[in-house]
Design goal:
Helix content: 40-55%
Radius of gyration: 17 Å
Shape: elongated
Structural class: mainly alpha
Strand order of the largest sheet: 1-2
Number of helices: 5
Order of helices and strands: EEHHHHH
Number of domains: 1
Number of strands: 2
Strand content: 5-15%
Length: 136
């Protein structure tokens, strides 16, 4: 509890987190396709109640989750690109569909705001995904 008597953390078993997207990622690419990075942020959905948002925001801030995601993002991007390269080398045809499928699997298991699911989905939607895979 805060000094104002407000909860500061979500409880993973008892709190129901709305199925609204609030973890966002921005991809940063090298203009020569030699690398891609990611930075995460929180964005309050318009339809989310203020008290729910305040709890989510507090939880992420106090646990420094966005900082942790940012620190781990380069390694995760490299792994995702490696998995995509293996998929293509094995004869896979639709790279975006493959990565969207992996993202959806994570979302179903860990929720819509799992940082890796968000990252995979955003990468799958980027028009330069195939270039990144070939450059990795």
């Amino acid at each position: 509890m805060s000094i104002h008597g407000k909860r500061q953390f979500l409880h993973s078993y008892t709190d129901i987190v709305p199925d609204l997207q609030f973890v966002k990622v921005t991809l940063h690419e090298d203009p020569h396709f030699t690398g891609v990075g990611a930075t995460f942020s929180l964005e309050r959905p318009a339809e989310m109640e203020e008290n729910v948002w305040d709890l989510i925001d507090s939880h992420f801030r106090r646990l420094k989750l966005i900082d942790r995601y940012d620190e781990r993002s380069n390694d995760e991007v490299a792994e995702i690109l490696s998995d995509c390269r293996v998929f293509l080398n094995a004869g896979g045809a639709n790279l975006q569909e493959f990565l969207k499928g992996r993202s959806n699997d994570r979302r179903e298991t860990y929720g819509a705001n799992h940082w890796i699911a968000v990252l995979m989905n955003t990468m799958a939607e980027h028009p330069n995904l195939k270039n990144w895979v070939h450059a990795a």
